[in-house]
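We examine the record.

___
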Amino acid sequence: MNITEYVKKFSETPLTHLNIRQADILVLTVLSYIDFSMVSSGFEKCIKLSDAINQLFAFGIHEKYRNVEFLRNLRNSKRFSDLYLCGYRNEFDSLSNATQFSVVTIRITEFLWFISYSGTDGTVVGWKEDFQFSYLPQTPAQEKALQYLQTASEKLKGNFIISGHSKGGNLAAYASILVERTVQERINAVYCNDAPGFNPHINIFEQDGYQRIATKFSCIVPQDSIIGQLLQTFPQYDCWNVIYSNSPDMILQHDIFSWEIDEEGNPCWLSKMNSSTRTVMKEINHAILSLSIRERKELTNFIFDCLEEKNIRHLKAIKYYLPLKYLMRFK
């Protein structure tokens, strides 16, 4: 079963700090992809998750989500419906500034908070920022993620679980590594779900902050992970967990909704990733990292200038690939 079915099957037991599972981590991580801007903003006031979803349905906002059943199951689940949301943010900037940032905080108990950073939403702006991981020392979203965690720690009492999917997993890691030590001491765990890595030139894993909380990281990837193996990933492979995706398509395996949960409510773990995919990703990373910082920036700008020239704002508008004549310009 996937997380939608998991929410329905395990709906009778309220979620607490004592019974939280890794399947619950995946469920809560997905919440940052939902637009709660009409019902949540600051940390001063929380709203019950079931009430927030009811308002999405009342205003018809739910219709733009492909996983409407997931929202219904959450609303009807004793395990999740009585959780509270706060601190929702969704920021979007132009292609020239390339900023797409979304995050939400969930109150599990009075003294345990779950911060979920969203991944890329399919907009060209969001994907350009993903490419910037390869050459910028800090992307706009990474800066915002760090500021958000710092602010949350000042506004909220208790400890935190930090999580994110795709780009959101990178943001979760970045913020947790670079936040103040006193805040790190309040972090119980950090989950990076099929998240891209970092530009090796920023030496993120040599930071004192990483050394202090390295044991708190968990990286969840599907068997043919592509995004989760990009750039410099976590050096300690014992923090990696491979989950079975029911999709035969390597790209679609990135979708959390394709990740399998067993009948006991535990992720369907595999012993390792597919070796052929790991070999391919090593070659891709080698090709990327063999470029200079300047060349990576030029390549990124070239690709997205082509998309802007064609007035393409969302990946759905891209038909298979960029025209060859555009790619041939970059030499």
Remarks:
- The chain has twelve helices and nine strands.
- The domain at 3-290 is CATH 3.40.50 (Rossmann fold).
